[in-house]
């Protein structure tokens, strides 16, 4: 028990600041980065038996950055849910403006369809789509955060768009 505490303390002392910086790069919030870094350190410590002794720093960075991305997504989903809940409470006629009620409802339905398609994308495409279109990150930022080549970001976005077009056409036919 005391050995575990000492090993955890050494992990925190040696890599805590480094991981905080990596997580902060994703979240841009000191408080959120501190919380996520703590969770990441606990997860890393718990996962040490599964570590395959290849690139320790890369391994722990990937765990921490993925934790940060998950946290950010979760926060976005909550924000989207609050926004959509508010939109449902707001009377449709108040939002109509120059459009008709029908136009407004069709636009909302279209946005919902796109959101559903994006949620159905394979995870490795969905991550890049969210990062680029929702989080408005550059290809460079995405490549750095996900530790992939710039060309990989481009191809994943291209393939995701192809997947979405195909899904959209199939639904229109069906």
From TrEMBL:
Keyword terms of this UniProt record: DNA-binding, Sigma factor, Transcription, Transcription regulation
Pfam families, sorted: Sigma70_r2 (PF04542), Sigma70_r4_2 (PF08281)
Assigned protein family: Belongs to the sigma-70 factor family. ECF subfamily.
InterPro entries referenced in this protein's UniProt entry, alphabetically: RNA_pol_sigma-70-like, RNA_pol_sigma-70_dom, RNA_pol_sigma70_ECF_CS, RNA_pol_sigma70_r2, RNA_pol_sigma70_r4_t2, RNA_pol_sigma_r2, RNA_pol_sigma_r3/r4-like, WH-like_DNA-bd_sf
Protein name: RNA polymerase sigma factor
GO MF annotation terms: DNA binding; sigma factor activity
Domain RNA polymerase sigma-70 region per the UniProt entry, residue ranges: 11-77
Annotated ranges, domain RNA polymerase sigma factor 70 region 4 type: 112-163
One GO BP: response to stress
Cited Gene3D superfamilies: 1.10.1740.10, Winged helix-like DNA-binding domain superfamily/Winged helix DNA-binding domain (1.10.10.10)
């Amino acid at each position: 028990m005391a050995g575990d505490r000492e090993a955890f303390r050494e992990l925190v002392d040696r890599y805590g600041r480094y991981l905080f910086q990596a997580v902060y790069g994703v979240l841009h919030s000191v408080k959120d980065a501190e919380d996520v870094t703590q969770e990441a350190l606990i997860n890393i410590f718990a996962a040490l038996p599964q570590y395959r002794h290849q690139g320790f720093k890369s391994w722990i960075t990937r765990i921490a950055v993925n934790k940060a991305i998950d946290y950010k997504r979760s926060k976005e989903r909550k924000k989207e849910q609050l926004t959509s809940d508010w939109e449902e409470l707001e009377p449709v006629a108040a939002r109509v403006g120059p459009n008709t009620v029908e136009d407004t409802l069709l636009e909302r339905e279209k946005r919902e369809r796109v959101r559903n398609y994006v949620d159905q994308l394979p995870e490795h495409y969905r991550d890049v789509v969210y990062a680029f279109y929702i989080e408005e990150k550059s290809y460079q930022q995405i490549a750095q955060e996900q530790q992939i080549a710039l060309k990989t970001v481009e191809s994943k976005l291209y393939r995701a768009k192809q997947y979405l077009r195909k899904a959209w056409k199939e639904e229109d036919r069906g």
